[in-house]
Design brief:
This protein is of the alpha/beta class. It has six domains: about 1-30 and about 275-350, no CATH class; about 50-270, no CATH class; about 365-405, no CATH class; about 415-530, PAS domain (Beta-Lactamase, 2-Layer Sandwich), CATH 3.30.450.20; about 535-615, Signal transduction histidine kinase, dimerisation/phosphotransfer (DHp) domain (Helix Hairpins); about 625-770, Histidine kinase-like ATPase, C-terminal domain (Heat Shock Protein 90, 2-Layer Sandwich), CATH 3.30.565. Helices cover about 45% and strands about 20% of the residues. It is built from 23 helices and 26 strands. The strands form eight sheets. The protein has a six-stranded parallel β-sheet with strand order 4-3-2-10-1-9, sandwiched between helices. A hairpin with a 5-residue loop joins strand 15 and strand 16. Helix 2 packs across helix 11, helix 7 packs across helix 9 (about 255-265) and helix 11 (about 295-320) packs antiparallel against helix 12 (about 325-365). The radius of gyration is 43 Å and the shape is flat. The N and C termini lie far apart (about 85 Å). One of its GO terms (molecular function) is phosphorelay sensor kinase activity. InterPro entries: CHASE2, HATPase_C_sf, HATPase_dom, His_kinase_dom, HisK_dim/P_dom, HisK_dim/P_sf, Sig_transdc_His_kin-like_C, Sig_transdc_His_kin_CHASE2. This is histidine kinase.
């Protein structure tokens, strides 16, 4: 009976210790970060649930700040918003904005709130003795007010809210109470305890509209009818807040109140289940008792299954709005399992010492070689465990039989390549499947027959043997077999022994003291597939060639730029010298005009070079804006009409009447079109035609610039977008240019995520620009 109680105590002991340790960690709060991580993981595993369709968010977002000004902006916009929502039939307008300071616009906002009669205001209660209320005029005009106090945990997530604080109701509950005045009763919730939030999903999935869009009448009234409309800041940097679904891109404080409203409407506020001490007192010892009846592998499976099971139960209960602890139960499972295994190992270690002592006493006399130093275990460092002495005795007993197993273990660790072992006569006594396949080897075959002459020449084989006998590695050889490259290496196979146990041979290297020595035991062949390395080397060679080509292109570019920059300077210098010798006013004006033209040319060249460099290094900053192409494009082309009339050219602009508005960087698009039209004007002869069109070719927006006249040879089309390139014999009128215009156009189009094409034939040259159509 005493033995039974003692055995039961050993089985329950690990679980009891684990329970006490977990209890201490809970008391110290050490497990709180893990519980918070588990909380977030549970919500992410559960997935998102739809937001209540009775809830709508009007967001003071970045777009609103761009259009209405810095935050906080004028309260006249709030008055306009309240009137707009009142007209739309909103049930409640909850303004999650603090109006704690008086402004001249308060009168208008208060009147709008009185007309609506459904406005709820926010008040601050954060770490202050008295609440920070809205200004009296607005406070009196509001239907209700509520506090926005929220306490974040260490990870930045708010998990629960106080429904009452300093006799003030929570802002979200105030909005719910106002909504209940005009609608069916809302399910009641316990407002005496903190409310645990049941996050529904990413805040981006909450139905939301921009504050500016609502004020400016761009949102249909139907979306607000009979809805709770909550208004708050979501712009970057304003009241940021993390949620289980918004960790990297934070949400805002208004989403916290929206979640509270959603939870009350859906009656799905979390109910925490707290049975910590019952689980600790019963769970740890009970699990320890169960694990003690199984071997280690089954114990690990039970622990793994218990962990998954608890996680699954936690997730299932979360779906039914119950929250149970996750981290400490899993910690209890893991720690109990570890302690059970450790306890068994300690008990097994004690048994092992006893068994080794008995084995040594029984089999010591049967050793073939029994020198004095093996009769007792060798001296160990003072820090070694006493049990290791008996293990050392057992190892000494098996040393004579472990040499071959050590060699095979070394070979097994390198099975990613072809391996074979042979003696110095070439007799193979081990080879892995890779070596057997590639070298046609098998146990008992001769290594030399398979290697010579397919892999090594006879001279190379003999040189390798000589090197190996001196206990040095042979030089690796690279060989091509079919389409694959292989590296063949030969290593000396040695093992360390003691002179007293294994007398040295002629090939052994003896130390000065005559103690342990290395014995040369054979040849280890290593065959590695290096095809991938060869491909990388070939790729590196190719990249080096490309770098040389880029260097040559750079030199050519610098040469061209220096020439292009020097030419206007030379002309300016000549004009200045001629100015000194002018005799008439007309000549003076002529040379001044030359100076002006060359200065303009130099400036344009430098500006084009700077613009092109900025585009190529990614320094172009895009500022997308709303563009009505039906009016903007004709206005852009208007200045070219006088130029074409002076040259007797016909310029036509066609814009599709059904072309939608787009969002694009206006300056970049303008530069592209102006450069293409300017290019068309240069190379169109008198009586020629220039056509500019804009239409939609789903899914792209397409601009086409065509001009009649000189065609571009087909072999030159691929180079028209190169810097400083001019098509030979394509400028009969000698109008010149920097040669950078089309290069700039191509870079700008690519910066706009578009494509540009050029074609020439039938007396026409056509440039087509396709840009993504981000319709408004």
């Amino acid at each position: 009976m005493n033995w039974r109680f003692s055995e039961l105590g050993w089985r329950l002991l690990p679980g009891g210790i684990a329970a006490l340790a977990i209890a201490a960690l809970l008391k110290l709060g050490v497990l709180q970060p893990a519980e918070q991580l588990a909380y977030t993981a549970l919500f992410q595993a559960r997935g998102e649930v739809p937001w209540d369709d009775r809830l709508v968010l009007v967001a003071i977002d970045d777009g609103t700040l761009k259009r209405l000004g810095r935050f906080p902006f004028s309260r006249k916009y709030y008055a306009q918003l309240v009137d707009r929502l009142d007209t739309a039939g909103a049930s409640v307008v909850a303004l999650d904005v603090l109006f704690s300071e008086q402004t001249p616009e308060d009168q208008g906002l208060a009147q709008a709130m009185v007309r609506s009669g459904r406005v709820v205001l926010a008040q601050a209660d954060e770490q202050i003795e008295f609440p920070l209320l809205p200004v009296p005029q607005l406070y009196d005009a509001a239907l209700a007010a509520g506090h926005t106090r929220a306490v974040m945990d260490a990870d930045g997530i708010v998990r629960k809210l106080d429904p009452q604080f300093q006799n003030n109701i929570a802002f979200g509950l105030a909005a719910i109470d106002a909504y209940a005045l005009a609608h069916a009763a809302i399910p009641s919730v316990d407002r005496r305890q903190p409310m645990w939030l049941n996050w529904s999903g990413s805040v981006t999935h909450l139905r939301r509209y921009s504050f500016a869009d609502v004020v400016q009448g761009r949102v249909n009234d139907r979306v607000f009818r009979n809805k709770i409309v909550i208004v708050g800041a979501t712009a970057a940097g304003l009241d940021p807040l993390r949620t289980p679904f918004n960790l990297n891109v934070p949400a805002s404080g208004v989403h916290l109140q929206a979640t509270l409203i959603h939870n009350v409407l859906q009656n799905n506020i979390l109910q925490p289940v707290r049975s910590t001490w019952v689980l600790l007192v019963l769970g740890g010892p009970l699990l320890s008792l169960i694990l003690s009846f199984w071997r280690t592998e089954i114990q690990a499976l039970i622990a793994f299954g218990s962990t998954l099971g608890w996680g699954g139960v936690s997730l299932l209960l979360l779906k039914f709005n119950y929250l149970i602890p996750v981290a400490f139960p899993i910690g209890l499972i893991v720690s109990t399992t570890i302690l059970v295994v450790l306890t068994e190992r300690l008990r097994m270690n004690a048994m092992l010492q006893q068994q080794v002592r008995q084995l040594w006493q029984r089999y010591e006399s049967d050793l073939v070689i029994s020198p004095p130093d093996l009769r007792e275990p060798p001296p160990l460092p003072p820090t070694s465990l006493a049990s290791m002495q008996r293990v050392t005795q057992l190892a000494a007993l098996a040393e004579r039989f472990g040499r071959s197993q050590s060699t095979q273990a070394a070979i097994a660790r390198n099975l990613s390549m072809g391996l074979a072992a042979a003696d110095f006569d070439g007799l193979v006594w081990f080879c892995n499947p890779t070596a057997a396949t590639l070298l046609k080897l098998e146990i008992g075959s001769r290594l030399e027959i398979e290697l010579v002459p397919h892999w090594l020449s006879d001279a190379e084989w003999q040189d390798a043997l000589t090197t190996l006998q001196s206990e040095k590695s042979a030089r690796p050889k690279e060989r091509l077999l079919g389409t694959r490259w292989y590296c063949l290496g030969l290593e000396p196979l040695t093992y360390q022994t003691h002179a007293a146990l294994d007398p040295p041979s002629a090939h052994d290297a003896l130390p000065p003291d005559g103690g342990s020595h290395f014995r040369l035991d054979g040849i280890l062949l290593l065959l590695e597939d290096i095809s991938d390395r060869k491909k990388i080397e070939a790729s590196l060679d190719q990249q080096i060639d490309e770098l040389h080509q880029m260097s040559q292109l750079k030199d050519d570019f610098l040469s061209t730029v220096s020439h292009e920059l020097r030419t206007p300077l030379t002309n300016m210098k000549m004009a200045i010298q001629l100015l000194k010798m002018v005799g008439t006013e007309a000549q003076r004006d002529h040379y001044l005009q030359i100076l002006d033209n060359e200065c303009t040319r130099e400036t344009e060249l430098i500006n084009d070079l700077l613009d092109l460099q900025r585009l190529e290094v990614g320094g172009q900053v895009l500022r997308p804006e709303h563009i009505d192409l039906r009016t903007w494009l004709p206005e852009l082309i208007e200045p070219f009409y006088k130029r074409t009339e002076a040259r007797r050219q016909a310029l036509t602009v066609r814009v599709d009447e059904d072309l939608p508005d787009i969002e694009c960087d206006r300056s970049s698009l303008e530069r592209v079109i102006v450069e293409l039209v300017n290019n068309a004007c240069k190379y169109t002869p008198p009586e020629g035609e220039i056509l500019v069109t804009a239409d939609m070719v789903d899914p792209d927006f397409k601009v086409m610039v065509c001009n009649s006249g000189v065609e571009i040879p087909e072999e030159e089309l691929s180079r028209v977008f190169d810097r400083f390139y001019r098509v030979p014999k394509a400028d009969p009128w000698k109008q010149g240019g920097t040669g950078l215009g089309l290069a700039l156009v191509k870079r700008l189009v690519e910066c706009l995520n578009g494509k540009i094409q050029v074609s020439s034939g039938g007396g026409w040259t056509t440039f087509i620009v396709n840009l993504p159509a981000d319709e408004v």
